[in-house]
What does this fold into?
Amino acid sequence: MTKKEKIVVLLKGYPRLSETFIAQELLGLERAGLELELVSMRRPTDKKRHPVHDEIRAPVTYLPEYLHEEPLRVLKALWACRKKVGFGKALRQFWQDLRHDVSRNRFRRFGQAAVLAHEWPVDAGWLHVHFIHTPASVAAYTHLITGTPWTISAHAKDIWTSSDRDLSTKLNSARWAVTCTASGFQHLLGLSGKKQNVHLSYHGLDLTRFPHFDGPRPMRDGSDANDPVRVLSVGRAVKKKGIDVLLRALSSLPSEIHWHFTHIGGGDELASLKQLADELGVADRIVWTGSMDQKQVLENYRQADLFALACRITSDGDRDGLPNVLVEAASQSLTCISTNISGIPEFFVDGENGLLTEPENPVALANALQRVITDPQLRIRLGEAAEHRVRTAFDHRTSIADLKTLFESEWEKAS
It folds into this structure.
């Protein structure tokens, strides 16, 4: 790979409102002088875009999301790839993987890899993939077919819902992997064998998009029914976010504490959560806004009194790493309440710059909520400490520099 060759970045879907951290990274790498070309396994489903998506210059190509939708494209790619030196090796790996994962999804990943290998940009010399589960399967097969070196950005769900065998195989194949929490880093490092090719780099925030908020925050304490404390949560309505736990905690607060809850985000569980709010008798105190772009979310951070996210580990191992929305909220001196799982305690220290409870515990969460709702001075202290942590240790330019250094070390080896 030479400095003039571009990097193909393989993504599961693009653009996505819930993956601002990826878009932020892509733009940062472009601004650092790297030339990118994006390839997405799925077309966008969100009706809105963040401003950062419009600033990324890299062109985007979409693979066939389902092979039967573009059969001629897939067959043409497979026919052409059969002549490539690595096709036999990739096919053998596919059959080996299929024994552990008998699914249509496995066939789809091999077909998508063939299309990517066949349509590979002539001026690209590297493949980088976001997420170590299904996208990395496509990348690994593409690497075997073409011989193109590849690397991985691993995050949260993709790590914890993958088998150790699958993770070890991919880490052995890739040049290196980078991940964004210490818990994920330790898990992957333990599976990397002798290669020890895993690196830790927190995403951070583009602080120019989240400048310091100078506006006043009202000293609401929940005592005024006409001016309730404003509680905010941002995130897709999916099980790992624990929104149901948060609703139960809010509904159990003493009747003399007045609050209003706003949830921002789409998701499959919205209907069931609204039903739960009805059953708990709090539906009239809740607004479900649906998805919003980054500017709208920022405005809501500034209007809220506190931010809450009751993250949990689901039965299949799915979980958040360090949710970007917590760091965003903290950047606005907004007091955050969350749970002590995954990478969250790597940012928040309970009682110092936020409040953390055990997951799946609405009673403990309600106690934490009551504590900060009734004590606005505590909210100020925790919020200021959280913002200081963001602005001194979570600038996204650090993670961009880490990635650029990793890529440049490969260029130096090649030269």
Observations:
- The first strand starts at residue 6 and ends at 11.
- The mean pLDDT is 95.
- The first helix runs from residue 20 to 31.
- The two ends are 8 Å apart (CA to CA).
